[in-house]
Amino acid sequence: MFEVECNQSGIELTFRVDETFSGMEWTMLDPSRLLQVLINLLTNAIKFTKDRPQKAITVTIGGSWSRPPKCWNEVTFTDDEKPKTDITEKAEWGEGRIAFLWLKVKDTGCGMTMDEQKKLFSRFSQATPRTHVKYGGSGLGLFISKSLTKLQGGAIGVHSEKEEGSTFAFFISTRLAHPPADHVAARAVQARPVPRRTMTGEEAMQTIKLNVLIVEDNLVNQKVLRKQLQKFGWNISVAGNGQEALEWLKDSVYWRNEKDSSNTEDKHELDIILMDIEMPIMDGLTCARLIRDYEHQGLLAAPSAPHSASTTQAQHRKTLSASSASHERAEKQSLRLPILAVSANARMEQIEQSLASGMDDAISKPFRIPELWPKIRGLVKRVADADTRTKS
């Protein structure tokens, strides 16, 4: 997924499987949210490593049978207290042994001082005021990563030294699961350098035609974003509020109401929703909750045609190059419609509420299209499939 950026910058990207991962090849987890955190960490690692004399990033996956302590392998976790409500106690997680899956991203970037590290993981927080000027970004990614790991019963942390590089790590709570019946044996994964590719990010966006629904009450914002995305050949639809979005969905390929037997060829195709949070008539949070409720009732489901674009367990395995799976919960996740929260006033409570309401990730506006693309790439299955085919 990150071959282009690494190749262009001469970065060696390596994936390793720690020996502690043994016995945890099949677990119950939310693959899309785990992937979002990993994408955020890798995006930052590339950004702060590409101008360094030594350019290397190593991603390591491992596990633990006990909850990692606050200080773990030099990394200090934030909000590491055990949550009051254990998500793994829900019936859907089964009765497998509790395990903690961890991922670590180590880079040879510019590193940070201790004072700079203390400012991380807060809304719109960056190491120094000059970080945005030199590297870009809103500083929202690490805050979202913190919220996502917390929702999964885990925590995120960092260890860094100025001019030496940084190590970001996070863990989530899981339960062991039985492999699918058609699975013969999980293949061992070995560390390997990333193969070379030449396609740029903008070229990648032009190679696949996505169907996007923009839910935004501001007409100017609607027009600007629509024009930006249409230049890539994407099919863009708009809705002025949550209620309009729900009505639009009822005429899309996702709608599964048996009373509506009209030809699916006349239905709107859809890959992802870009959802504003604060809107009149119906806000984005309410709309997202209703969409997830419709999915639970079976009224909304990903189409079975090849153009379907929801997040799947297969995407998670291919992206991490590991055999970790989420079994039944991932099967439900494969029917999930990707929703990206978009807000100009991304308060801490608002981001947490958006994730809790059923949205999959968030981005703060104004944003640049290169900042939006990694978010879409991490949520839309069809994009991940295209990356995999290109790689092979």
TrEMBL record:
Quote the Pfam families the UniProt record gives. HATPase_c, Response_reg
Which residues are in the Histidine kinase domain? 1-176
Looking up Gene3D superfamilies in the UniProt record yields: 3.40.50.2300, Histidine kinase-like ATPase, C-terminal domain
Question: Which intervals of the chain are annotated as region Disordered?
Answer: 302-331
Task: Recall the GO molecular function terms of this protein's record.
Answer: transferase activity, transferring phosphorus-containing groups
Task: Name the keywords, alphabetized.
Answer: Phosphoprotein
Which stretches are tagged as biased composition: Low complexity? 302-314
Per the record, the domain of life is Eukaryota
List 4-aspartylphosphate occurrences by residue. Answer: 276
The UniProt entry's GO biological process terms, in alphabetical order, are: phosphorelay signal transduction system
Q: Which residues form the Response regulatory domain?
A: 211-380
- InterPro entries reported for this sequence: 2C_system_His_kinase (IPR050956), CheY-like_superfamily (IPR011006), HATPase_C_sf (IPR036890), HATPase_dom (IPR003594), His_kinase_dom (IPR005467), Sig_transdc_His_kin-like_C (IPR004358), Sig_transdc_resp-reg_receiver (IPR001789)
Q: What is this protein called?
A: Response regulatory domain-containing protein
- Native organism is Alternaria tenuissima
Classification from the root reads: Eukaryota, Fungi, Dikarya, Ascomycota, Pezizomycotina
